[in-house]
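pasting Glycosyltransferase family 1 protein for the record, 418 residues
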Amino acid sequence: MSTRILHVTRHSGLSSEIAGIFHRFPCVYLETFDFNDGVNLDSESSGLNYNVNRRRAELVWETYRIFFQTFDMVLVSDTTPMARPFLEGDRWRKPILLYVCNRFDFSNQDIDFQLAQEEMATSYFPDEDFYQLMRELTRRPNVRLVASNLFESWYAQHWRGIDWSHAEVIYPPGVGNQRPWKEEGEESELRAGGTAFLLPPGVYALHNEEEREVNVEDTVLVPDRGVVGGTCKEEGGNVAFMNNEMNFGVSSFLRSNGFRVYNGRYNGAEEAARFKAMVRIPQNYMSTSFHQLLGAGVAMLVPTPDFLLQLSVDPAFWWDTKWDVQEHRARIEQSGRWRCPKLKSTLSQETIMFAYEYDSYHAASLIFFSSWEDLVDKLRTVDFSRHKEQVRKLAELHRRTYLQEWERVFLELRALQL
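structre below
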């Protein structure tokens, strides 16, 4: 008899990765639920579904309760608040796995998201009741906490005062068929060159300067992450876009040193592996594509920890940010209107080693550069064919190891329902 698992997420990359994992297990039926409250479904309002206050949690449960109850197990990935409909009132007694990926209290309060700002003024999220739910998770026998990276438990304890030290870390094995930064069905188009430029109101595009046909084996790939963000000007912050390669002009720098560069999107990890190498400047502790890129044998060059910390003092640098939730909530309640939170970077000398790129486990799979000059030297002297072969071998070992870990967790959870 098969086990019916409902995967709750809003992240296409994690949807592909989780599908790639569980489709390898016998007697498993997996279905993905694009988390929503049944009301905010259009492109403008759908972002509200990330802010799972108590009212939205109840709305989700009442809208989809009968559908949910047809499953034997629930897996929630991406942002943990999407588990709230199942956790409120201790109404879900079946196994539930929380795969914590992008901070457990993520909320969508984008500076350009007017609907969220209006809602926050009357129904702020994250609220204190949500944090209390998170504290109680350790006492629920049917709930399993698994972190996708080393930072999640540290963040819960040091930033929010919640002890999740027991949560084990299980990396993605890199088996998803996600095509990073590219929509499904979109044709692959390799474009050489391309200078990123800003277009109001804060989106950017590629300006092609060279011919489309390129010899990718001799070309350096600088990925176009295609996402923007920033700090609020009213708080005195500069707008730093979530694309550090663009922020620091990596493409222009490499071209000025004689390298052929493709700055754009690519059609999946296998296509990325055709390039000579990829240059990445990390901006968060994890990304779903990281292990998929290693699995394909991509040669990734990243700054050393010291060099990244040096870059982080530049106003153009972007890293995962958080704020004092209680202070921000109090300001909104007092003024009656949304105000930009006082954002703080979570990056420090202590936390940098939690990022995938700086976890010692991945060190042998990456090439580190200690300065821009060192990047140029590495691109000219490293035997990339040999390095890619090493990366593929390490990735295969990683894949086998973590598929076994995922299977172990699944079997332990399934035993709870028997």
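The longest strand covers residues 3-9.
Residues 384-417 form the longest helix (34 residues).
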